[in-house]
Amino acid sequence: MEFKSLRRQYKRLKPEIDKAIGEVLEQGQFIGGEQVRRLEEQLARYVGVQHCATCGNGTDALVLLLKALGIGPGDVVLAPAFTFFATAEAVSLAGATPCFVDVDFPTGNISPMALEQVLERQPWEKWGTAKAILAVDLFGLPPEYDIIDQIAKKHNLLLAEDCAQGFGGSFDGEQNGSFGSGAATSFFPAKPLGCYGDGGAIFTNQKEVAGLVKSLRCHGKGENKYENLRIGQNSRLDAIQAAVLQVKLAAYGGEAAAVERIAHYYTQQLQGWVVTPPWPQNRVSAWAQYTIVLPGQEARDGLQRFLQEKGIPTQVYYPTPLHLQKAYRFLGGRLGDCPQAEQLSRRGLSLPIYPDLLPEEEEAVCAAVKEYCRKRKLRASI
Ligand SMILES: *Cc1c(COP(=O)(O)O)cnc(C)c1O
After folding, report:
1. Any residues with CB less than 8 A from the CB of 114 and at least 6 apart, and which?
2. Which atom of ligand 1 is nearest to the CA of 186?
3. Tens of pLDDT along the chain (382 residues)?
4. Which of 289, 296, 337, 364 has its Cα between 20 and 30 A from that of 36?
5. Pairing state of beta strands 200-204 and 51-55?
6. Which pTM was predicted?
7. What is the DSSP string of 35-70?
8. Closest atom of ligand 1 relative to the 199 alpha carbon
């Protein structure tokens, strides 16, 4: 069994993908052009926003978005302590400083209550002034954007969305990627919508933000590449990736339904045995990951080994919360600062989930998890 299988997806989509790539080779335009323009249009329509600008990868998308929102040196950005490193790294690359906020258990989404507490304490004096909240659609599930938006407005902060794992999910009927002043996503192959290399995009309803991203991604260009208005960078999606993504976007609806069905099956089989991901009424997850929570680290590590012996691959997302990462030691984060994030890194385990997972594989995963829990006399525990 594979943790993610892109080979099966390719087999399923092979005729369309080969044709799309072949067309790009025939057309001979490999950077920018019609393929990229068409994809940006389709993505904006899918997400339900006015503007989409693609770029080289998800990390660049976050950096470009933050810079276009005017975030830079002397600014502090509140971000969850439990996410992929790139969320915070992008804040630093934009010249600002992240302030880590604890998350909700067991979703791992930024906690509105912890946000309010941090905003009361304002522990960032040394680093500047708070400018924005960067929320993450962790594992595909959007956080409570209505509440977070209210908090942002109350404290005069911008809100931005890290949608790298969230493409395809929604909150109250609004697609992920449409929240706050702008969102960034990633097309890394294993993400919910992935290409065959690196890729990323930003979404926004603000024309100026989209315009700035389009300038910054191409050396800060003005009317053309050789008129440079600002210091930008080089970050572009190539035409082959854009062609692949158009095929995958067309297939995405069916894939999302398949993944949701697997998530339902896992939850129905595993609830009671382990803590399963919450299924909030008004939210749809993109199911980038299906992450269960065990009673403790020893049980989690034991289950991972047990499954490995049966040929079932799993992943620990994420073994170290960001406030405890070496790279951010200079911020002075300490064990105990973000207790829920720390719990999740010790106790969470992500199971294989993707549209082409076979029914017998789903069954094998659930049977093995239950067998382990039975043997170890474990039950779901908060
Ligand atoms: C993958 C990911 C990124 C970065 O995307 P890349 O395309 O790998 O640069 C950023 N944030 C989160 C939450 C991610 O999962």
Report:
1. 101, 102, 103, 338, 340
2. 7
3. 999 999 999 999 999 999 999 999 999 999 989 999 999 999 999 999 999 999 999 999 999 999 999 999 999 999 999 999 999 999 999 999 999 999 999 999 999 999 999 999 999 989 999 999 999 999 999 999 999 999 999 999 999 999 999 999 999 999 999 999 999 999 999 999 999 999 999 999 999 999 999 999 999 999 988 999 999 999 999 999 999 999 999 999 999 999 999 999 999 999 999 999 999 999 999 999 999 999 999 999 999 999 999 999 999 999 999 999 999 999 999 999 999 999 999 999 999 999 999 999 999 999 999 999 999 999 998 8
4. 289
5. antiparallel
6. 0.98
7. HHHHHHHHHHHHHT-SEEEEES-HHHHHHHHHHHTT
8. 7
Q: 186: CA distance to ligand 1 center in Å? A: 6
- Ligand 1 centroid, distance to 107 Cα (angstroms): 18
Closest residue by CA, ligand 1 atom 14: 164
